[in-house]
Amino acid sequence: MRSWLLCLFALTVVVSRSTQQNYPRNDNININAILQNDRILLGYYKCVMDKGPCTKDGKIFKRALPEALPTACGRCTLKQKVAFRTLLLAIRAKSETRFLELLDKYNLSRANKEGLYSFLATGV
Fold this sequence. Notes:
Elements: H1 2-20, H2 31-35, H3 38-48, H4 56-71, H5 78-94, H6 96-106, H7 113-122
Helix pairs in contact: 3-4, 5-6
Signal peptide: 1-16
Keywords: Signal
Protein name: Chemosensory protein 14-like protein
């Protein structure tokens, strides 16, 4: 019985630590290069919308979107929040329609819509 409780405790610790981890780190992404080139920004959009190929950075962004949109990047590091917010705002500035398509694809229930828009407006 005692070993059973010890195993259960260890499993609880592992699960709770894994849910608190940040997204895969890729802090070397050059946001300015993406924003200065509409073709590259469109490539990121096509990647996350399954309409085109993905770069390594695009794949990371795409994997994070299903959780990051409803939680307003809740598990992101500060640098990841800046990059995530900057890319979303750039997509929105270029095309509100594409931005809404992105939200529809990854945030179907629009969970925490106010939180996401607040994050986009303030970065917090």
